TrEMBL record:
Protein name per UniProt: Release factor glutamine methyltransferase
Methyltransferase small domain span: 176-256
Function text: Methylates the class 1 translation termination release factors RF1/PrfA and RF2/PrfB on the glutamine residue of the universally conserved GGQ motif.
SUPFAM superfamilies named among the record's database cross-references: S-adenosyl-L-methionine-dependent methyltransferases (SSF53335)
GO biological process terms, semicolon-separated: methylation
Length: 347
């Protein structure tokens, strides 16, 4: 059999398993490349070359798994997100392109001046870092790898912090200029990408699953960033004095009653803790209600709370944000025109 016939028969196997034709062709090609160690160009150039039984045996187990509707990303062990490749295992949700909109909402955000110290503790103006968008590149010194001048201690000081207040809470643990938290980090795709793009920001990430955090830690190492990972429920595992300029989350938002409508790839393979509203008979909004109740207290004034939402949930979540006292509540549409990101700022 020639390589092109081999590819055609693999495509047919996937189509027969119920995978739509266009995807079957692309995925068969990717699996053949993966099994035989070929680039796309080699696959084309060698289309008339014969395929032997040994090569067939390399592809077969992959084809069986995919025909069984196991997601391609689990078979390959990785998935691209925002231009980076992430390790994925069945312990984590597979990163989705929609989630890139959440990332963009964060990159477009200007951190509030309130993230700086209270007036009495301000260092002389010359020592202040210039105001910058959170997504702006680091100053040249640190980009060249030279050590940045240390922040004056007063900039991170907590001595003026009112008892029990969150107004002047310690921002991000005091290690970097800004602080960001990703709740329910899963593969770590959001936290690690943001840590990579925003080297001046201290990134924290929580997840309830230790197995997911193991994958997220691997991804942080893979991309050479340091993220403070903590295991636990939403904000519970964080030091109580910590506040953030940005809190993001892509929480499990599918109502359990919708499970029968999901593709088998999702329902039968992705972790249910990452997909479904955790409350029995939940409407999909349970974790947004909890985030509205718990997250604003952990934001600095002017800080951003941004979440991904499921189809049809944006208005309800925007309303939760308003009721929680957040301002500038905004809905961002995804490429399909579906309200996908809801954000708001703490006044
Ligand atoms: N934060 C991860 C992602 O966006 C995981 C989200 C989740 O498990 N619900 O892919």
């Amino acid at each position: 059999m020639t390589l092109s016939l081999f590819l055609a028969s693999a495509t047919q196997r996937l189509a027969d398993a119920g995978i739509p034709a266009a995807e079957a062709r692309t995925e068969a090609r990717i699996l053949v490349q993966h099994a035989l160690g070929l680039t796309r160009e080699q696959l084309i150039l060698r289309s008339d070359s014969p395929v032997d039984g040994g090569q067939g045996a390399l592809l077969e187990p992959l084809l069986i798994r995919r025909a069984n509707r196991e997601p391609l990303a689990y078979i390959l062990g990785e998935r691209g997100f925002y231009g980076l490749s992430f390790q994925v295992t069945p312990a984590v949700l597979i990163p989705r392109p929609e989630t890139e909109h959440l990332l963009e909402a964060v990159l477009a955000f200007s951190p509030p001046p309130a993230a700086l110290p209270p007036p009495a503790a301000l260092p002389p103006p010359a020592a202040l870092p210039p105001p910058a968008r959170l997504g702006s590149p680091p100053p040249p010194a640190s980009r060249r790898g030279a050590a940045s001048p240390p922040s004056p201690p007063s900039q991170r000081g907590t001595s003026d912090q009112p008892e029990g207040g969150t107004e002047w809470c310690e921002v991000g643990g005091g290690k970097k200029r800004g602080a960001l938290l990703d709740i329910g980090t899963g593969s770590g795709c959001i936290a690690v990408t943001l840590a990579k793009l925003l080297p001046e920001v201290q990134v924290w990430a929580t997840d309830i699953s230790e197995a997911a955090l193991d994958v997220a830690r691997e991804n942080a190492v893979r991309h050479g960033v340091s993220v403070e990972f903590r295991r636990g429920d939403l904000l519970a595992p964080l030091p109580p004095e910590l506040c953030f300029e940005v809190i993001v989350s892509n929480p499990p938002y599918i109502a359990p009653a919708e499970a029968p409508t999901l593709e088998p790839e999702v329902r039968d393979f992705e972790p249910h803790t990452a997909l479904f509203d955790p409350s029995l008979g939940g409407d999909g909004l349970t974790l947004y209600r909890r985030l509205a109740a718990e997250a604003p207290a952990r934001l600095v004034a002017g800080g951003l709370l941004a979440v991904e939402v499921g189809q049809g949930q944006a208005e309800a979540v925007a309303q939760l944000w308003r009721e929680a006292g957040l301002a500038e509540v905004a809905i961002t549409l995804d490429l399909a025109g579906i309200g996908r990101v809801v954000s708001g700022r703490k006044p």
